[in-house]
Amino acid sequence: MFSELLPFLERWFKEAEIKGYGIPSNYGSINSPEFSSHLEQVFVKFAERMKGNYPFHHPDYAGQMLKPPHPVAWLAYSMAMSVNTNNHALDGGPPTSEMEKESVAALATMFGYGKSFLGHLTSGGTVANLEALWVASCIHPGRTIAFSDQAHYTHERMCGVLRIPSAKIKSYPSADESPELFASRLESVLKKSNVGTLVVTMGTTGTGRVEPLHLILPVCKKLGVRVHLDAAYGGFFKLLAQRKEIESQPWNVTNEADSIVIDPHKHGLQPYGCGCVLFKDPAVGSFYKHDSPYTYFSSDELHLGEITLECSRAGAAAAALWFTIEMFGLDYHNSEFVNMLSACRAAALSFGQQINETQSFKLLEQPQTDIVCYFPIASDGETISALSKALFSDLMKRGSKSLFLSLYKVPAASVLTDKNSNDTEITVLRSVFMKPSHKEFVPILMQRLNESLQRVKKESF
Ligand SMILES: *Cc1c(COP(=O)(O)O)cnc(C)c1O
Question: Is the pLDDT assigned to residue 298 strictly greater than 90?
């Protein structure tokens, strides 16, 4: 294997004209047996270390939001990475900067934004949301930023970083609230807390819930409240909504939001390091305005660094996204993105249905995207939490019959109907069906889950 690797490295060094480093001088040349053996040693050590990972690419893994990138994204990423362009400024990589602008425009079009918008890639959803909240605070200085109790924790944290007052609102739907009641509750909270911006999560990290944008927008418009969509996880489900494969009402009005965050490194088939923020009004670019004594010299055209908070960013991330979109398009009629998401959604629905049919598990809520939360039925919260945790660990150590799930803590009231319970939080199970291969895998998954429940009940309950 190492004899195969060496000529490749040698050619790479030569073609890239990398001189002066890479081969420690005491080895003489890349073909010296000493160099080869040293490389092998480090490689073996590295490979051993990497074995500590879970099987993220395999359907056995249905735990956290991890999805293997598409091979075409690997290809473009590694090619661009070897040139190592920096999308901070056109000086650092004109072609990958162009690719970024085109890919971001494709995402903006997917959400229904017009030609004039502002947007760029980021290293992930956290920074993308930070930028959107920062712009929101520039537009409504001193006013509160509100989000639901299901929003990603980053919003509360970033409000702290930005020193903006924040408020949490009980998410909708809940069993005992009509759309009208929700709208009037929302209106009174927004007024009372002097809210300037409301974050709406389109696909919550916990359960994949899509918040009802179509009910929220009219209230916000009436009160002059800005709307930011955190679609970091769920953004690409817009394509399924356009096909009516999921409830489309909230997605039909994404074009009316003031800003949107989407993570191509979640459902967009990209390797990590690819988030995106979009602003409907390009005039917000003025908040980013700055001059740089070091960069922005190569042309008068817009440098991405002029509209980002991050400076250096991997041009390779833009190259990979551009290549993937160029290959598959973002058309809801027919695109690899759609086929892949449809299969994930089908897996979640079929798993949800089978959970409903068992006598031993129950759904936390009906899955709205491809995340399913469920728990083993038991008489009290403490037992539910203990059983969930026992299932989680038991299933992880079954060798080739392992199953990797995740745990999720929820308020006791969302699991138990008994309002007098002493529990405040209950731990439930959570599965993210991010891979098309999960669709065929549901029966096996169900079987392993049931077997594990028998085992843990026999052992300790
Ligand atoms: C994942 C996620 C984030 C954070 O994004 P990163 O890419 O992990 O930084 C924010 N919001 C939601 C809804 C998410 O699912």
Answer: no
